[in-house]
Amino acid sequence: MSTSKTNNAVPDSVPDNTAELRQPMELDRQILHIKTLYEATRELSNAVKPSAVLNTFLPIAMGPLGLTFGFGVMRRAGAMRVAMLGLGASDKTQFDKRGELLVDKFFPSNKTKPTISSPTVLAGQHLSYSADVPTGTHVIAVIPLDKDSHVVLGFGPKLTGEAFSDVEIDLLNGLVNILSTALKKACGEQDLNERNTHLETSLVQTQEAREALNRRAFQLRTLYEATLELSAINEPTALCNAFLLTLMGTFSFSTGWIALYGPSDTEPDVAYRGPEPDCLTYLAHSGRDKVLGQFVGLKDKMPQRSQSVFLENAGARADLPLEADVAMLFTLNNDWRGCIGLFSPLSDGAMSPDMHQLFLSLVGTFMVTLGNAKHTQLIHDLNSDLAARNVELQNTLDDLTSARQEIGLLSEAKEAIIGLVQGEVLRVFRASWFDVSLIILAGIVLGGLFNFSSPSGIDLVPKSFLEDPPEMVAAKNTLHLAEGGAVIVDARPSEFFKQGHIKGAISLPEDMFSFVYSMKLSSLDPAIPIIVYGRNLSRHYDVDVARELTELGHEKVLVFDGGLDMWEEAGYEVEK
Amino acid sequence: MMRRILPILLLLFALALTACSQDKGAVAGTYAAQSNETEIVLTLKDNGKGTWSTDLDEIEFKWSIRKGGELWLHTKEGGVIPGVISDDTITMILPGVDQLVFQRQ
Predict the structure, then answer these.
(1) Taking a C-beta distance cutoff of 8 angstroms, is the pair A520, B102 a contact?
(2) Using CA atoms, how far apart are residues A2 and A18, in angstroms rounded to an integer?
(3) Where are the alpha helices (DSSP H) in B1-104?
(4) Which domains does chain A have, with CATH numbers?
(5) Contacts of A94 (CB under 8 A, 6+ apart)
(6) How far apart are CA B62 and CA B73, in angstroms?
């Protein structure tokens, strides 16, 4: 601490006759000064803010010395603080205007190195000549706190009008030092508080930034996972199902639906997750008009190709085919438009702007993958059509190849046949008797073999040629014998018998003789005459049957050789 | 000359074999029918031969199965008696005789 002493300092010497009286007074004054210093230390230690310290200091310093006024100007980090006691409002205005100049006079701003490094007290009437301090200022104290904080104090004259003594100047020095310490402490605490506040603010901001970062990371991760999942799906309906599940999980909804409608002759792609599975069918068959109607209602705000828009209006959402707390319309291209609806949220609260943005981003990804899936499906359909056409073309080529080969074979066969015929024609003219004989012999042998092996083979020589002819009978006698009990047998094939026969005749075809005989005549008395008829130019059935009957033991077998024609000519009865 | 006749003979032989290759095992067996008071027993043997037996007669014949499952009885006189096979019955008609229905025994 440095102290300047003015020329007006009160002299320490007093008359000798008062020395005894001065000692107790000096002691009281010292005690008062010590109390003042103690009180200043105690009071200032309680003040927290620098301005409060300054305001507290002035009455503590002025009281014991009996000063008329006092002021303090503090510049701290560019801000000015003024404390006054015993001065008027005009002085306050003056400090507001010129306080900076006053401080700058002792602590110039343009000097990097401080001119005053410790608290200093200046005293003297000359100080009042400065325009920067109130008139009558007798003491000025300057206190450097730190690089940017400085204090200038000023005190007016004593109420008694006496000059400041050295002891009083020492007291002021002590008080200024206490003030300096208190201000440094208060400034330090204020700085610490400000830093703490700043630190807390920064901490809150950091926390908020961290949460925002976490949300952003969540959104990006969700977007990445959705992109990864959707990009692996090529079928539009499966894509809608997968995306709906992602949306419901990300935004915590218990019910959701997606409907995508194309041209009227195409099947829509729909997905639904919720408590009523029938809604899926309803979306597919009845949702088209309601969803597409929303696009018409939006007019100029209608989402264009690859765009999406939230359906904010609750009334419009109510007109959707299914309930939706959150709904978004989207347009894939000029032909395909769709709507996404989420209903029944699992948590309260509106969707935050971040979640809105995430919703938009997810739908954007969905539309891209959906567009790709549609293109893939189109390519697949085209490939299938192309494959079918290729198969058809291949079949046509195979048919053409086959037809060509067939034509070639037919041509070859035609040429071969023509060659064969021509060769045979030529050969016929060159055929030898040996060849002809060989062919005839082969024919006879084959015919004989066939006749021998066939169950229907015939005798090479008719037996009727080898045996005696049977006894013949005329029509009149035939009738007479029949009336006498003779049996008339029709030996012709049964078809002829059915067309007409002698009344009462039995059909006994020659080729089924044994069978029919066993059924019809086997039990006939051999003594009963039998008359057989039926022959034509090539076959004498009557003779053969008559011979058979004779061989079976019938004693009188006759043949009516006139047959049915002569019977009818004779006018006898015929059955048909 | 033989080179030209031989293929024809082989062809005829193959046709004969084909005709003889009809499956008779499923039809072979003994059948019986009643006509008036006469019982007829029809026996079809695996070798293509058979007998038609009544109280008074026993007639031998050959038999075959035609395309379509029709049964033909070839009489020794050269005639053919057709019959229709249905499950275990054979139905046939003889001239002047009512329809005969033979039941497998």
Answers:
(1) no
(2) 32
(3) 2-20
(4) 2-193 (3.30.450.40), 233-382 (3.30.450.40), 463-575 (3.40.250.10)
(5) A134
(6) 6
Answer whether A438 touches B (CB < 8 Å): yes
Residue A490's SS3 state is: strand
Q: Supply the DSSP string of A170-228, one letter for each residue.
A: HHHHHHHHHHHHHHHHHHHHHHHHHHHHHHHHHHHHHHHHHHHHHHHHHHHHHHHHHHH
8 Å CB contact of B75 and A507: no
DSSP-derived letter for residue A40 is H
Give the count of beta carbons closer than 10 Å to the beta carbon of residue B94.
20
Q: Reply yes or no on whether the pLDDT at A210 is more than 90.
A: yes
The answer to whether B35 and A519 have CB atoms below 8 angstroms apart is yes
- The 10 Å CB-count burial string (b at 16+, else e) for A294-315 is bbeeeeeeebeeeebbbbeeee
CB A501 within 8 A of CB A574: yes
Per residue in A23-32, pLDDT (tens digit) is 777 888 888 8
pLDDT value of position A10: 41
Contacts 24+ apart (CB under 8 A), A536-544: A539/A510, A540/A464, A541/A491, A541/A492, A541/A493, A541/A509, A541/A510, A542/A491, A543/A464, A543/A469, A543/A470, A544/A462, A544/A463, A544/A464, A544/A491, A544/A510
Residue A144 has, within 13 A of its CA and on its CB side, a CA count of 18
Distance CA A533, CA A541 (A): 8
CB crowding A69-96: b at 16 or more within 10 Å, else e:
bbbbbbbbeeeebbbbbbbeeebeebbe
Residue A11 above 60 pLDDT?
Answer: no
Decide if pLDDT at A44 tops 50. yes
| Å between A378 CA and nearest CA of chain B | 55
Nearest Cα of chain B lies from the Cα of A466 at a distance, in angstroms, of 17
CB neighbour list of residue A142: distance below 8 Å, 6 or more residues apart: A106, A107, A116, A119, A120, A122, A150, A151, A152, A153
* Domain regions of chain B by residue span: 23-104
Whether B95 sits inside 8 A of A514 (CB atoms) is no
> Whole-prediction pTM value?
0.42
Per-residue model confidence (pLDDT) at position A457: 64
Q: So what's the pLDDT on residue A18?
A: 63
Q: How many residues does chain A have?
A: 576
Distances (CA, A) of A143 to A86, A520, B95: 21, 165, 159
Count of CB atoms situated within 10 Å of the CB of A373: 21
pLDDT of residue B17: 52
List, in sequence order, every residue forming a beta bridge with A247; answer none if it has no partner. Answer: none
The interface predicted TM-score (ipTM) is 0.81
Residue A12 has a pLDDT of 46
Query: Which among A80, A75, A62 is positioned nearest to A139, based on CA atoms?
Result: A62
User: B7 with B28: CB under 8 angstroms?
Assistant: no
| 8 Å CB contact of B96 and A514 | no
Mean pLDDT over residues A122-142, rounded?
A: 84
Per the model's pLDDT, the better-predicted residue between B12 and B76 turns out to be B76
| B93: pLDDT strictly greater than 90 | no
| Topology annotation, domain B23-104 | Lipocalin (2.40.128)
Model confidence at A398, pLDDT cuts 50, 70, 90, reads very high
Q: What is the pLDDT of residues A241-255, one digit of tens each?
A: 999 999 998 888 999
Q: How many CA atoms lie within 13 A of A87 on its CB side?
A: 27
CB of A491 within 8 Å of any CB in chain B? no
Cβ contact B79–A438 (<8 Å): no
Residue linked to tokens 């013949």: A472
pLDDT at residue A4 greater than cutoff 60: no
